[in-house]
Structures are given as structure tokens and as C-alpha cells.
Amino acid sequence: MKSLLLILSHKKYFAAAFAFATLNFWFGTWAIYIPTVKDKLDISKDELGIAIFFLAFGVFAVLPFASRIIQRLGAGKSTWYAIIAGCICFIFPLSAPSYISLCAALFVFGLCNGFLDIAMNSLVSEIETIDRVQFMSSAHGFFSLGGVCAGLGSFFIPLIDNPLLHVATLSMVLLAVNFFLKNQYISIEGSIKEKASAKFGIQVFKAMILLSVISFVAMGSEGAIIDWSTLFMKEVVKAPEQYIGVGFIMFSVCMTLGRFLGDGISSRVGSRKTLLISSSVSILAYVFILQEHQIFSVIGFSLGGLGFSVIIPELFRIGGKMKDVPASTGVSFIAGSGYLGFLFTPVILGFIAEQYSLTESFSLMFVVAIAMLVAIIFAKFPPSNH
């Protein structure tokens, strides 16, 4: 909890952490309205999967340019500009009048989200280096906290009964809060230019690939639960309408808690043990989810939140301290691959769910979680600069 207190007691750290919360406010709100969009446009699960693919494609499209833009603008300005664009484009998917316009809206939304994800992780990495502090895991805790707050919005859907009004109001509030916080970090440029001449050997490259694969799987599982947990609770578990968002909410609550505790756990047991414990809990989570019972499934989503909570922050910590690799490059590499998993995995699950069922989709994630544990067991983590 020390890193959480650090964030809450320093405006600069809180400002950077709130960027993480902003990103999941967008995603969490999109997640709870997925069934609404599906019914409004009368589209199938595989068509929904294709639409989500355009969200992933938007992220993929920005990846080749993100590092160069961040290097030119600086991590601080890049984060703020991405927030402005995202708050505007956040409104588009919920206001799309047709399936084609939904795909286009999700593509543009993906561009904004992908760039913000890389920019804000680079920003935190640079602040940690400059100020000699650790708050990466707790910053990701704010990402989860944003999802918790967005998920709570599912209880007000029947009262608001206007998705566009909901997202437009939330967008304006998020933009206003970030506007008052931006001066705390906007001048931070980073150390990319200073390290541009660092060597990038084959061993380091192989290590980064392995870290990226683990990141892809971990964030893919997170994306799967965020995008499909509501439908799983509704169609498979047959939960009452007012409870279909409980699985997502508990996932987000437990992920938030795990991330606020993550920095302390990592400092005590080390990165490898932290990842091994987390991946083991994640496997157990799918065992409970696949019981297809309301209570067991909610327990499973809760365990999933705890299990996946510290994997990504820990990978960023490792990547940001790799020897002979600029911190922003390591973080961007892992963030990019992880974010692709976050968005591509739900697409794949959409096709599987349409052809078979959501049960088969989550069964596949159970197998992938086991593979992730095996990868961590045999992984050779790269040497650190610190």
C-alpha cells in the first residue's frame, strides 16, 4: 500500500495514475453497453467479434508510430493529447447508427486507446526513473479502479436509459479532471534520446519476445473477461439482469486490490515468484468460472482479478529495467503486444462463441492460462540495469 499512499500524497503521481483510470473508464463503460449495442444494431456474436476486431486493428495501426511520436512530443504531452482524442472518440461507438459506422468508430477509438496505453506507461516509467520511486503496479490499480467505477454504472442503465447521454457526460467529466491535472506531468519528455545509442543484442531481443508473449496472454485474458463476462453471466449462467454486471465488477474490484498490493509483494518475493503465484491463481479462476453457476462464476471472476492484477505491471517493471534497452522502448514493446492481446483475444472468442458457445471460449482461455504458467516457469528474465 506504500505506493498507493505515494500516489495519493503527490499530485504528479496522482495525475499520471488518473490517466490509467481514464482509459478503463472508457473500456468499462463500453463493456457494460456491449449487450445494448448488440441488440440495438441486431448483430450476431461473430459480427460483434468483427466489430471488436476493428478496435484491435486501430490499436495495431498506431503501434509502429507510437514510439516515434512519444519521442518527438515527450511522454507527458503524448499522454495529454491522447486523453483529449480519446474523450472525443469515446462517444462514437455508442452513437453509431449502423454496423459499418460502429466498426469505423471502434477503429478510431482503438487508435486513441492504443496510443494512450503506450504513452502513459512510458510516462510512469520515466517518472519512476527520474524520481527514484515505484508506483507502476498502483498506477495500474487506478486503471482497474476506473473499471470498477464504470462497472457500477451498469446499475444505473435502467434509470438513465440513454447510453449516449451517459457516455457524453462521462467524457466531459474525464476531460475536465485531466485538464486540471495535466500540468503535473506535461513537461516530462523522457530519456529516449539519451539512450538511443544503446546496444540491442539478440539475447535481449529474445527475452523481450518472451515477455511480450506473456503480456499478450495476460492482457488477452483481461480483455476477454472485460468484453465477455457480462454476456457469459447473462447467457450461460442465466443471472438476473440486475446481476449480469457483478462478475465484471468483482473482477475489477479484486484486480484493483491486487495491484495496490502488487509493489509490496514484488519487493518481498521477487518478480519470478510473483508471476508464478499470479498465474496459478488465474488458472484456478477459470476452474470456478466454468462451473457455470452464479456464485462460483462470480468467485472465479474475482480470483481472475487477483491473479491477473500484478502480471502486467510486473512485466512492465522488468521491461523498464532491462540492460541496454531504453525504459520507454522496453515498456512500449510489452505494452504494445499486451494491448494487442487485450483486443484480439475477445475477437477470437467471439468467433468461437458464435460457432460453439461462450463456455468453449472460456475453456480455451483456461488452456492458455496453463500455457502462460509453463512459459513463466521456463522463462529466463533479462538482466537489469538497476
CATH hierarchy class name: Mainly Alpha
**Terminus-to-terminus distance:** 23 Å
Question: Helix and strand succession?
Answer: HHHHHHHHHHHHHHHHH
Strand proportion: under 5%
| CA-based shape | globular
Q: Segments where pLDDT lies below 50 for 5+ residues? A: 192-198
Query: How many structural domains are formed by the residues?
Result: 1
**Helix/strand class:** mainly alpha
CATH-defined fold name? Growth Hormone, Chain: A
CATH superfamily: MFS general substrate transporter like domains
In round numbers, the mean pLDDT is 84
Number of helices: 17
What is the number of E strands? Answer: 0
**Helix percentage range:** over 70%
The CATH architecture classification is Up-down Bundle
Can you describe what's shown?
The structure is a single chain. This protein has helices spanning 2-9, 11-32, 34-41, 45-73, 75-89, 92-95, 99-131, 136-152, 157-160, 163-181, 202-236, 246-269, 271-289, 294-309, 311-320, 327-355, 358-378. By secondary structure, it is mainly alpha-helical.
Features:
single chain, 386 residues, mainly alpha, Growth Hormone, Chain: A
Topology, element by element:
Elements: H1 2-9, H2 11-32, H3 34-41, H4 45-73, H5 75-89, H6 92-95, H7 99-131, H8 136-152, H9 157-160, H10 163-181, H11 202-236, H12 246-269, H13 271-289, H14 294-309, H15 311-320, H16 327-355, H17 358-378
Can you describe this structure in just a few lines?
This protein is mainly alpha-helical and 386 residues long. It is built from 17 helices and no strands.
